[in-house]
Write a structure and sequence with these properties.
The chain is built from 1 helix and 7 strands; from the N terminus they run H-E-E-E-E-E-E-E. By secondary structure, the chain is an alpha+beta fold. It has a 4-stranded antiparallel β-sheet with strand order 4-3-6-7, with no helix packed on it.
């Protein structure tokens, strides 16, 4: 009977340790700075720094970006930038004309798929 209790306790401790390890691994990965494409039919992009205290942000993607529109919370376009040379480098956006607040960046890729990301500008 004692051996049975010993195995049950060891098994429970093993399950708890395995669960806490996977929770620590999940916390160690910050999705804001990684481009993880979990759905191959949908493209992803990263805006950084976000929130931004400056007036310049960069957008990175593993897929070629065709254009970026910066919109207010009500959908008014305040800035649009095309990628005419279709460069794979990070795209730098100059947002000096935008007031502090919350915006949305509509990113259009070379195959016309779009993704919308939240962008926060602070003073």
């Amino acid at each position: 009977m004692r051996k049975l209790h010993k195995y049950i306790i060891c098994g429970a401790i093993g399950i708890l340790c395995a669960g806490s390890a996977s929770a620590q691994e999940k916390q160690a990965v910050n999705p804001d700075f990684l481009i993880i494409n979990q759905n191959p039919n949908r493209h992803e992009a990263v805006i950084y720094p976000n929130p931004s205290s400056g007036k310049v942000v960069k957008i990175k993607s593993s897929i070629l970006i065709k254009s970026i529109e910066i919109m207010t919370m009500i959908g008014k376009c305040v800035q649009q930038q095309l990628n005419p040379h279709m460069l794979y480098d990070d795209i730098t956006l100059d947002l000096k004309s935008c007031n502090p607040g919350t915006y949305y960046a509509k990113i259009t890729f070379e195959d016309n798929q779009t993704v919308i990301k939240k962008l926060i500008l602070r003073k």
